[in-house]
Amino acid sequence: MRLESSEDVRINAAAGVAGVALPARTPSGLKRLTQEQIVLITTLVLAGIFAVLVPGFATVQNILTLLNSIAVLGILSLGAAIVIIGRGLDISQVASLAIGAAMAAVVMQAGGSIPWAICCGFAVSLAIGLVNGLVIAFIEVPPLFATLATNLLMFGLAQIFIVGSTLLVYVPKSAASFLALGRNVAGVPIPVLIFLGLALIVHLFLSRTRIGRFIYAHGDNPEAARLSGIPTRPLTVLEYSLCAVIGYLAGLVLMATLSSIDTQIVMGTEIFNVILVAVLGGVSLVGGRGSVLSVIAGGLLIGVMLNGMTLLNLGNDTQNIFRGLVLLAAIVGDNLLHPRDEETARHGD
Amino acid sequence: MMKHLLGGVMAVVAGAALACLSAGTAAAQGNTAQQLQEQWNKDVVGKSVVYIPVAYSVPLTRIWGERMQMIADRLGIKFQVRDPNFDTQREEQLLEAEIGQHPDVLIVHNPNVQVLAPALQRAENAGIYVIQINMASRYKSDAFIGVQPNELGVEMADAVVKACDAPGSSHKIALMDGEVTSAYSLGIMEGATSVFKQHADIQIVSNQAANWDSKTAHDKAATVLQAHPDLCGYMGWWSGQDSGIAQAVKQAGLSGKVKIFTTDGGEPPACQYLKEGLFYEDFIYPAVLQADQMMSTAVTLLQSHTKPGTMHLAIFSPVNPTTAENVTPTSCTELSQK
Fold first, then answer.
1. Contact state of A257 with B335 under an 8 Å Cβ cutoff
2. Candidates 3.40.50.2300, 3.30.1020.10, 3.90.1030.10, 3.40.190.10; correct CATH number of B48-147+287-318?
C-alpha cells in the first residue's frame, strides 16, 4: 500500500474503519507527486507554451473565458467525483442535468415563477438520483448497468411527459432574471463563481465532515466500511442524490448560458468528458482516491487545451491528435509513477 | 328530294358519328382515369416508405417527418421513421435492418459522405429505391433532394463579404463549421472559400468546427471573440448550433457589432433570433417544400418501374436570405408538440 500526502484522508479513514495499522512506505522524488499534481504541472507547462506562442492567451479576460468554458463540465465532475470516490459510477448524471433543467424551463414557459420552476426541476433531478441510489444500494445492481438503464428510462419519460419530442426547450424572455445566471459580476462570469463556490463546498464536505470521510472509506473498501458500522446503503443513496443535484445545478448554469436546453445531450458523449476530467485528475475508478483538487486539475487541463488550440486555430483533426496525446501522456505518467496496486485495483473486491 | 334525303342521311350519319365519337371519348376518358387509378392503387397505395434522418429530434428533420407523414396518410402509403439519434453506427445498423425488411422506398439523411454509401448501394441492388436528402453521400442513388451546398456557401460568403468589406470595418471574419466530413459542410466550405479567395482584404481569423453542438460553438466563439473583439462577421451553417455563437456574442456585449450569418430549414427559434437581432442573416431553405418533393419523388419512382439505381434525379432547394427586415410569420415552420 502506498502512502501519499493527499491520500492521508483515505488511508486514515480506511485504517480507522478496518481497525488495523497499515504498513507505510514513503516514496521518494518524483514518486511523491500525486496525479493531480502531475496534471497541474502538465497544465502549467502547456499554458506556458501557449502564453509564448499565442498572442492573447495570457490575458485576464482570456483566462476568465477559459474558466467559463469549463465551468459546466467542472460542476458536473464535482458531482461525479463524489460517486466515483464512493466506488460508484453515474452514467445518468447528464440526464439529471438536462431533464431537471428542461423541467424548470417548461414550468417557466407555462408562466410559473422562477423559484417554483427551479424547485420543480430540482425535484425531478433529485428523483433520478434517489432511484439510482435505491436500485444500486438495495437491489445491488452494478452502478454501470443501473445508471445506464435509468439514463434511458428518464430520457424516454422526459420525452413523453416534459419536453415533447422536439427535445429542445427555450427559456422564455419573461425569465430574464434567471438568464442573468449566465452573465458576469464585476467582469467574472457567474458560472465560474458557482463552480469555484461549489468546489469549496464539496472540498469541505469530503475532507472535513464525517459523512465525507465515510464516502472515502466506502469507496476504499465497502465491506470493511459496512462491517465497521457505516450505513453504506443510505450512504450510497446520498452519493447518487448529491451527484444528481449537482448535475441539476450544472444544468441551470448551462441553460442560462445558452438560453435553452437541448435534452439531446442525454444521449451524447458528455458523460465521458465528465468522468475523464475526474479520472484524469486522479479520482480513481477503483474508489477512495482523489479530491476536489483532482477535478480542478483535470478541468483546467481540458480547458487550457481547448482554449489554446482554438486561439491557434488548429483544425479539428489536429486538435484531436493533441488532445489524445496529452491525455495518453497523463495516464501513462500516472501508471509509471503509480503502478497498479493489486490490493485495491480490482473493482468490487 | 334526293338532295334532302341525302342531306338527312348525312346529318344522321354525321350526328351518329359525332355521338359515337363523343361517347367513345367519354369511354376513353373514363378508361384513362380508371387506368390511372388502377395504376395508382397498384403502384402507390399500400407501399412502404422508411425515413431515416440523422436524428428525429431536431426541428428540421421533424418538419420533414411530420409533413411526409401527413401526405403518406392521405395517400395510403405506409410511412415509418427510424431514429438513430445522432449515432452514426446506429444509423448504419438501422439501414441494414431496413434492407432486410425490404421497404419500397428509403429516404436517407447521411451523417457524412462515406459511412452509409455501401449500404445505400446494397439497398438499391436489393430492389429498394433510395432518396438522399440535404446531405448526400459519395454514392449517387435514385434521387437527391436538398440544398446545393456549394452554391449556398457562395451565396452566404457573398453576403459576409458585402457586410464586412466596407470601409471602416475590421474585415475580420470567423467560420464555425459543423461536422467537417458531411457533404453539406464540405460543399459550403468549398463554395465559401472560393469567394473569400477573391477578397484578399477579408481576413479569416478563425475556422473551427463545433459538430453541430451549441455549447461547443458557444465556448469556441467566446474564445475567438476574446482575441478579436473587433470581429465583423461570424458565419456558421446551422442555426441550432449557431445559437451558441449568438449567446457568446451577446455575453461579450458585442450584439449588433458582430454579424452572424447562418442557415437552416425554417426552424422556429431561428426566426425569433432574427427578430431579436441575434442573427444578422439566415439563409432559409423551405423544409416543407422539401418534404413535399421527397414524397413526390417517392411516388414518381414507384410508378416509374425503373430498376432501382438506374435513375439519378436531383432537386435542388431554393434559398431565401432572411433578415430582421424581411422575416415574416411564414418564414419559419411551426412544429406540432406531440
1. no
2. 3.40.50.2300
